[in-house]
Write a structure and sequence with these properties.
Number of domains: 1
Distance between the termini: 56 Å
CATH architecture: Up-down Bundle
Strand content: under 5%
CATH class: Mainly Alpha
Largest sheet: none
Number of helices: 19
Radius of gyration: 21 Å
Oligomer: single chain
CATH superfamily: Amino acid/polyamine transporter I
CATH topology: Amino acid/polyamine transporter I
Shape: globular
Structural class: mainly alpha
């Protein structure tokens, strides 16, 4: 039996029937010449790409972008965010092809192809990164709800209950649709940026005069890594590939998956630019704006835009944390289920697949507990988590590249030369930035 056949020999679960029904419905839409059904087909197939990109604009990302704009203004980081969106699309598009061709999640592919040692390595990498990232989601939820007078304990518990209810009660199709509706709230930062009346000429000028504000140094490197960490992270690879599999996409759906991912990347960049423009306009140069204190930034936004502006920002922060917590808990559960060959689908009832649901929800409970520690430095902790994510990313990308260049697995859908070139450039960039940051910490006088 070939290795490719071995991947297909995993035991079937009841979700196969549900997935087959979804695929039959998609096949019917695909074969119809009716233009309305073609549009319906597109709307049916989109989901994983938009979700992964919008969830990447999580509470940690919102805080990072806001603090970046407040500390460095609009100049350097607006073009950097556009480049980050392109990088995110290049990386995530590969997971679409890998999931559609193999019908297996990322963790399952690594364990099956490279054995237990590298399987454990990738799984521990993912789970640690997910728990750390979940901490930033609960930071955003508790800080955002505090604007409305809700105590942190109550807001954290409410978020946990909502996360658990969505994961445990809904089947994949409903879970995805509900998550997409929640994700729409991420767009609230765009009208907020317009309310700030930024100098859009300055935004456009940033692309022609790309300069490092304040010079090159350890703090700047830290913020750059934090921005990369919130643009591409290990959980995104596992989440989108598993989501593609649970949704039941096939090679015929790859183009729709690519379009789905591109739309998500556009939304991610638009929201990121809006946040940098918002705080770059209202907070940059203001005393204390670069203190990494998100509560202070929110009050500053309120002082310029009124209570409505502060409330909208707080609601956006809560939404960002909520949608990301939903995605991260699912990512952890999918990876654990794939690694240990447990039932691994959101289509399955809790009684049948309780081992699948427990790891994700347990990681959320752990993260919420950390956030509730009194006097924790939440702003600095958030940036640190994003930096850690960027440090973990090169290893995750190398596994992805190995799989995408394995012709026995991918057949005609292997990476093209330009895709490999771009991917290795991304890995090299992350390695160089991580190396420079490490040197700057050990030898600060060199910078």
């Amino acid at each position: 039996m070939s290795k490719k056949m071995a991947y297909q020999a995993t035991p079937p679960w009841d979700d196969a029937r549900i997935r087959a029904e979804d695929q039959a419905r998609i096949a019917e839409l695909r074969e119809s010449p009716n233009w309305f059904k073609r549009i319906l087909l597109l709307l049916t197939l989109i989901g994983p790409g938009i979700l992964v990109m919008v969830a990447d604009n999580d509470a940690g990302g919102v805080i990072t972008y806001a603090e970046t704009g407040a500390s460095y203004g609009i100049g350097f980081f607006v073009p950097a965010l556009v480049i980050g969106g392109i990088i995110a699309f290049i990386v995530q598009e590969m997971t679409v092809r890998l999931g559609a061709v193999t019908h297996r999640g990322h963790a399952e592919m690594i364990w099956g192809r490279y054995g237990a040692f590298w399987g454990w390595f990738s799984l521990i990498d993912l789970v640690v990164a997910n728990v750390l990232t979940l901490i930033t989601e609960f930071i955003g939820i508790t800080v955002g709800m505090s604007v409305f007078g809700v105590p942190p304990l109550l807001s954290a518990l409410a978020a946990l209950v909502l996360d658990a209810a969505i994961l445990l009660v809904l089947r994949y199709r409903s879970w995805e649709r509900v998550s997409l509706w929640i994700a729409c709230g991420n767009l609230v930062f765009v009208p907020l940026a317009l309310m700030a009346h930024p100098d859009w000429g300055h935004v456009v000028e940033a692309f022609s005069r790309w300069q490092i504000p304040g010079g090159f140094g350890p703090v700047f490197l830290f913020v750059v890594l934090a921005n990369f960490g919130t643009t591409i992270a290990p959980w995104m690879l596992f989440f989108q590939q598993s989501s593609v599999v649970d949704k039941g996409l096939t090679v015929q759906d790859i183009r729709h998956g690519q379009l789905d991912t591109a739309l998500g990347a556009l939304v991610m960049v638009a929201v990121g630019v809006a946040l940098v423009a918002l705080t770059g306009t209202l907070a940059y140069g203001h005393p204390g704006a670069s203190s990494y204190n998100i509560q202070q930034l929110m009050r500053l936004i309120g002082s310029h835009l009124g209570s409505t502006g502060e409330d909208l920002f707080a609601l956006g922060l809560v939404e960002a944390g909520t949608i990301a917590a939903i995605a991260l808990t699912a990512s952890t559960s999918w990876a654990m289920g794939e690694a240990f060959h447990w039932p691994k689908s959101i289509n399955l009832p809790v009684k049948q697949a309780w081992r699948f649901y427990v790891p994700g929800l347990l990681s959320a409970v752990m993260a919420a507990g950390v956030v509730l520690i009194p006097n924790a430095p939440l702003g600095f902790l958030n940036l640190t988590v994003q930096v850690i994510a960027s440090i973990f990313m090169p290893a995750a990308l190398l596994f992805l590249l190995l799989l995408l260049n394995d012709r026995e697995i991918m057949g005609q859908f292997v990476n093209r030369k330009w895709q490999n070139l771009m991917a290795y450039v991304i890995v090299g960039l992350l390695v160089v930035l991580n190396g420079l940051y490490g040197v700057s910490v050990v030898f600060p006088r060199l910078f």
